């Protein structure tokens, strides 16, 4: 339930080690130890434990110069049927996000789709499902912050800067990449920290080629990593989606301002009356109230609807 604190919250050291991986999922333990003031042995041991038991998962992401087209979905469902509908949505490759509301009667999701043409899910499958009472679909116009951009706010700016690689802009490399590069990226989709030897075995390419190609892909910004970790393990049990109505002339400024806040793990400009969708992770409900009244209240936001997430059914990397 939203607002419940996990009894297994990671200690400060482990949270800082998770944050280090967010800076660079393929970060070497020796470098992390140097920047964070720990021994390499401790970093090796704690990362092995966190990655080994599934607390943390690092996946490789091919950089996308142009974000895929998408839609936000709000699906009202008869009580008692939400789990079934959410499970069906989560099994789809074109649905990377599925949340159940704390109230138990609504599903929030992101659908990756060509919005220029009718989509079978929206126009046929969901309307034909008796358990679904209504569907609201809005097109994503701009992404201010995606899940892969969120950083747990436990490192100093200097530490984060020292651990974050200086990636090139992937937009300038849009036409790069061949079959070998695609094979290497696919091999890292399940384990973004897989060593070159493991990637070589999985792809059949020589290890020397793999090392050289991976270094080149990283330098060009075409290989990024995403760290999945249950935010409750980081002491952030409140997961909320904020649907805001912002004047068009202020939408970009408000979106960028909120996206820069450490509590925000997603921010999208969309069509519809609520034209700014913001997702936050916070330690408790008083912190959510403070975020709404202070951070959002200080901006030119005409209205906001707050939806508490009861359970995150599917998130990137999970």
Automatic annotation (TrEMBL):
GO cellular component: cytosol
GO biological processes: response to amino acid
Keyword Transcription belongs to the record: yes
PROSITE patterns: HTH_ASNC_2
GO-annotated molecular function: sequence-specific DNA binding
Key words of the record: DNA-binding, Transcription, Transcription regulation
Keyword presence, Acyltransferase: no
All residue ranges annotated as the HTH asnC-type domain in the record: 178-237
Domain of life: Bacteria
Pfam families on file: AsnC_trans_reg, HTH_AsnC-type
Name of the protein this chain belongs to: AsnC family transcriptional regulator
């Amino acid at each position: 339930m939203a607002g419940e604190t996990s009894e297994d919250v990671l200690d400060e050291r482990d949270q800082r080690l998770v944050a280090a991986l967010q800076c660079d999922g393929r970060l070497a333990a020796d470098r992390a130890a140097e920047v964070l003031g720990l021994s390499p042995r401790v970093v090796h041991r704690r990362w092995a434990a966190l990655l080994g038991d599934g607390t943390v998962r690092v996946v490789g992401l091919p950089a996308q110069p142009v974000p895929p087209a998408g839609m936000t979905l709000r699906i009202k469902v008869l009580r008692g049927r939400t789990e079934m509908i959410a499970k069906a949505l989560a099994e789809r490759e074109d649905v990377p996000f599925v949340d159940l509301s704390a109230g138990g009667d609504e599903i929030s999701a992101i659908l990756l789709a060509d919005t220029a043409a009718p989509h079978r899910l929206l126009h046929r499958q969901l309307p034909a499902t008796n358990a679904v009472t209504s569907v609201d679909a809005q097109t994503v116009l701009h992404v201010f912050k995606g899940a892969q951009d969120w950083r747990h706010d436990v490192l100093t700016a200097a530490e984060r800067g020292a651990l974050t690689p200086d990636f090139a802009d992937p937009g300038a490399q849009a036409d790069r990449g061949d079959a070998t590069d695609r094979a290497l990226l696919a091999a890292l989709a399940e384990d973004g920290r897989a060593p070159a030897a493991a990637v070589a075995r999985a792809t059949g390419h020589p290890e020397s080629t793999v090392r050289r190609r991976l270094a080149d892909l990283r330098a060009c910004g075409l290989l990024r990593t995403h760290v999945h970790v249950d935010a409750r393990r980081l002491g952030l049990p409140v997961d909320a989606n904020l649907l805001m109505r912002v004047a068009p002339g202020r939408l970009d400024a408000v979106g960028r301002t909120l996206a820069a806040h450490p509590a925000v793990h997603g921010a999208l400009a969309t069509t519809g009356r609520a034209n700014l969708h913001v997702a936050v992770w916070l330690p408790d409900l008083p912190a959510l109230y403070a975020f709404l009244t202070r951070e959002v209240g200080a901006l030119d936001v005409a209205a906001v609807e707050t939806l508490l997430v009861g359970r995150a059914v599917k998130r990137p990397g999970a």
